[in-house]
Amino acid sequence: MNFDELFGHLGQHTVDGLSKGAIYALIALGYTLVYGVLRLINFAHSEVFMVGTFAVLGVWTALGVENNPPIGQAVLFLVIGLVVAALASGGTALAIERIAYRPLRRKNAPPLIFLITAIGLSLVLVEVFGLLLPDVAGGALPSMFGRARQIVGMPTILKQETLFEIGGTQITNIQLIVFVCAVVMMALLDWFINRTRYGRGVRAVAQNPETAALMGVNQERVIMLIFVLGGIMAGAAALLWSMRFGFTQNSIGFVLGLKAFTAAVLGGIGNLRGALVGGLFLGIVEVYGATLLSSQWEDVIAFVVLVVVLMFRPTGLLGESLGRARA
Amino acid sequence: MIDKIRNADRRRIGAITAVGDRWRALPKWQRILGVVAFVVFLYHLPWLGKLPGGLIIPGLNDLRTDSITGGNNWAGVLFVCAIYVLVAVGLNVVVGLAGLLDLGYIGFFAIGAYSVALFGSVNSPVVKWFQREFDLPETWAVTWAICLFIAIVLTLISGVLLGWPTLRLRGDYLAIVTLGFGEIIRIVARNSENITNGPQGISAIPGPEGPPSADNQVFGLIDARPWYWLAITAVLLMVFAVRRLEHSRVGRAWLAVREDEDAAAVMGVYPFKFKLWAFAIGAALGGLAGFLFASRNAFIDPTQFNVNLSILFVAMVVVGGSGNMVGVSLGAVLLAYLPERFREIADYRWLAFGLAMVLVMILRPQGLIPSRRRTRELKDRAAEAEEAPAHV
């Protein structure tokens, strides 16, 4: 137990945790949206994120991005990366809904069948990306029958620099961008769900599907919408991840997905603001825990948090609600 | 077009269940004879396609994995198949009978494997600690048979420990928590170097005749046949035991809880108790499988207990037909055997498993050899959906 390290640099660890948690929160939104409307854990959502990182990798490779480009170009690349990742992730999420979930919904299948399908689908996506896209980054043509499943590096878009210091806590440009971007994306989503016509439809279906249908809400469209929205958020997370960590792998989604799901449950699954709170909280807890024990135990901490939350407060910190409460 | 396929599929499902009915309608002596013949066939499998005197039967010989270049030892593959069948039978208790989705089954498998490694191998830190503390000779280690006992007790306890807090949760939460559990077991095994040797793993895991050595008469490192016979014996015993359980009061309680938990509770069946039973029994079976696996391999390390295997186990059960013991055994054998026999697909096997899961769930959620009751449950739900099409 390394308490000296933790309390000696408490501010620094908190900032690290916040910027990590912001990414979890963005992914968690995908779980929360789908759960809020369909009462379904979209297990394949972690792969939506994974596809997003590969989209970023692909577009940066295609554009010939090199390490540390001038700032104007860097911004351009980031914006292009965001758009492409959002398109790819949103498209993947939509495809998952159409291929896997819609036929099951027609048959009113039990929830476990949805979950098993999603697990199968996520395995398929992981394997497709492991087998077909081994090294897009190498500049070579994707070798179709390679078996490479190793980590693929990405160019550094922004050089990590300390922007300012508050009381010995250094805040880097990347941390700031990650945090601000994530919060802006979430604020946009919150506005969309709470203030627009489409958002009202989503909330109506979440509250009561039958009544919503009677009131003229097109349910299928709402379901497609939430999958796409969740996918776009995962795409944004993928861009931020690529910028901050600079690598991807076909199996990257599994652990991140579990953590994001933990974040969603922690904040109250189905609750958009809960996802933000849960994500940031989990990020901080994880960094603190990893400092206290050692970074080897990082993944265990998230799972323990999940079990503890589910045992003592299964509705999460802010409670489950997409439709209720803020109708 | 799709309707045509659906109807054909419905007929096939009918035909499969009809085979089951015909079997049950046979006179008892014929059924016993059939079972005995099948058991003899199972024990004879290592010689599949081979006749005494070096003759081979062409069709059957091609089924063997050592008939292709670079194929694995046939008896070794049979052993793995038997282990997977054991896993599938155990997981079927949890998934098929009690209706709980356990995605962390590899955790129990690992605990079983590590119990024989930690207590039975002279290379394990635990045994070394015992030797130091109690002035035991350096060759001392816990006997294999006692390790078996330890493995089963430990997995039972861990099943209860995991189940106690989590079984009150909704089904899909349970699945995610167990998934986390499987991963935790692997990470703990990797990180606690002073207990499990960490990533280096543990070697010299004993078999029934003691630590692996060239002097062992029966359970050697090279000839896998005795190991296969040992495993298949365990499978047969466990299939028999689970069958008895399925048709007992406990089995009926599982079924009631699976179909409608609230109704079961109203009828006086306490769901939590029976779910915990299913979890613990399933865990113990998984532990037994892991125990045999570790004994045969004589070496384990944490990478052998990857979380993907948990998903493979679930795939075996759901593709085969959850709730039906013949179905899940077939699923296990197929998923273990096909990548070994057809090496060209070995690279794509995870892809194939994933595809198989998705396709089976969408087209035929009851599995290849469905359980009749399961089929009817799903049909009921589909009929409800047609009555109320607006339902999400």
Automatic annotation (TrEMBL), chain A:
- InterPro entries found in the cross-reference section: ABC_transp_permease, BCAA_transport_permease
CDD domains recorded for this chain?
A: TM_PBP1_LivH_like (cd06582)
Its cellular-component GO annotations read: plasma membrane
Gene Ontology biological process terms from the UniProt entry: D-alanine transmembrane transport; L-alanine transport; L-isoleucine import across plasma membrane
Q: Write out the annotated subcellular location.
A: Cell membrane
Subcellular location, principal: membrane
What keywords does the record list, in alphabetical order? Answer: Amino-acid transport, Cell inner membrane, Cell membrane, Membrane, Transmembrane, Transmembrane helix, Transport
The source's domain of life comes to Bacteria
Membrane topology, record value? Multi-pass membrane protein
GO terms (molecular function) for this protein are: L-isoleucine transmembrane transporter activity; L-leucine transmembrane transporter activity; L-phenylalanine transmembrane transporter activity; L-valine transmembrane transporter activity
Transmembrane stretches, by residue range?
22-41, 48-65, 71-100, 112-133, 174-193, 222-241, 247-267, 274-294, 300-319
Pfam families the UniProt entry points to: BPD_transp_2
Q: Does the keyword Chaperone belong to this entry?
A: no
User: Would the keyword Cell inner membrane be found if you checked this record's keyword annotation?
Assistant: yes
Task: Report the sequence similarity comment from the record.
Answer: Belongs to the binding-protein-dependent transport system permease family. LivHM subfamily.
Name of the molecule in the record: Amino acid/amide ABC transporter membrane protein 1, HAAT family
Provide the taxonomic classification: Bacteria, Bacillati, Actinomycetota, Actinomycetes, Micromonosporales
Automatic annotation (TrEMBL), chain B:
Residue ranges spanning the membrane: these are 32-49, 74-96, 103-122, 142-164, 227-245, 276-299, 311-338, 350-369
InterPro entries registered for this protein in UniProt: ABC_transp_permease, LivM-like
Record key words, sorted: Cell membrane, Membrane, Transmembrane, Transmembrane helix
* Pfam families noted in UniProt: BPD_transp_2 (PF02653)
What are its GO cellular component terms?
A: plasma membrane
Question: Main subcellular localization, coarse class?
Answer: membrane
Q: According to its record, how does it sit in the membrane?
A: Multi-pass membrane protein
Alphabetically, the GO molecular function entries are: branched-chain amino acid transmembrane transporter activity
The entry's localization annotation reads: Cell membrane
Identify the PANTHER family for this entry.
HIGH-AFFINITY BRANCHED-CHAIN AMINO ACID TRANSPORT PROTEIN BRAE (PTHR30482:SF10), HIGH-AFFINITY BRANCHED-CHAIN AMINO ACID TRANSPORT SYSTEM PERMEASE (PTHR30482)
Designated name of the protein: Amino acid/amide ABC transporter membrane protein 2, HAAT family
